User: Fold this.
Amino acid sequence: MKTAVGVACLTLVATLAVTSNSPAQDLVVVNARILDGKGGAIEHGSVVVRGGRIESVAAGAPTKASGLQTIDAQGRTLMPGFIDAHRHIAQGDPSEWLAQRAAKQMQEFLDAGFTTVLCAICPDQGIELRQRIESGSVKGPRLFMASIIPLARAEVPGGGRGDPARFDTSRPPLRPTAAAGAIPAAETIKAVEAVASKKYDYIKTVITTTPGGPETDTLKLIVSEGKKRNLPTITHAVSVIDTLAAVDARPDVLVHTPHIGRLEEDANAVKKIASAGIPMTSTLAVFLPHFGADNTPLFRDAMPFPWNTVSSAGQGPVNARLLWEAGISYGYGTDTSWPPAESLADELRALSLVFSGRDISKILGQGAARSTLKQDQIGTLEPGKLADMVIVDGNPLSNVSDLLKVVTTIKGGRIVSDRSNGKSK
Assistant:
């Protein structure tokens, strides 16, 4: 069967009848501009998929694709399925979210091109949602889950009254001047065991060091105990000071570009952070205003934007580029809860300040995969990888906003969204 992107609605319905419950499709995408997720491009190429994995990526037409379902990209761009390596998905009451809103939200991710999402701080209901997606009862992206473990006895920023980024204790003048209270090692180890027992994929930690405080030592303990249980540690560090402290503890992933502190004034810090070999997630757009329908500048909590934080909107991209030049692995993540297409638009605004379209294709692909620690399975178009792919209408190398023009999303060799007639399927 031959199916062109943009064919009649009836053909699309037949194509998309193969969903998460069905075996992976064997298919070939032809006549595509291929961005491989590593920074490479093929102007006219094809990708063959068998058993849900990529068999070949080649220039021109495939040589061994007879009998396969064919998708004609019609010159559009084919690239790895998008990965948000740091995202919030559950808002409000977790049980109500799972029952009423989660399925629709998951489809929004697929329609926006996202085939993988790392939920940064996820309630236990996220584990249930992941099971539903894996069983096929809900259609959605591949979900990975993190659960938070504290590093010290510390006050909740803002007293728990709102988004902690509004009251960030990493940012002067709120930065602590006295040591935070230590958490007993036995309590921390018990917390790691609890995260592992619930089948989370990662431990999430937040580091804001205090003078003489326990944060780095506790993080080292969590990293060590996590490794014993095959449980990687993701560490939130938003200032240069805290990123340097986190590097000393050797977590598996650094979450957030440091946006407090000027790396252009500290070459040694740049070298230390980049040479540690720890992947970093972008999340630059948190401190850019998100504009509502009435042009109101909003923060990620949908409340008025706090302009006292806006310096981070410039410093984050500067620090990102310096770390990139020094060789850090840098991956796409948003740390927001806006609809995924809107979050993508915001993050692209920030990334475009210092990165080219080719750079961004690598940040969305290989970089984001490394920030989930799943680079052996996803993030690039190459033989053996899962067939997570997206077709976009345009050329993101010349106009990065074309990444917002998603036409077809393929997850593990299955067409999970086709919007060529203006509606998701």
Remarks:
- The radius of gyration is 21 Å.
- The chain has a mean pLDDT of 92.
- The first strand starts at residue 2 and ends at 4.
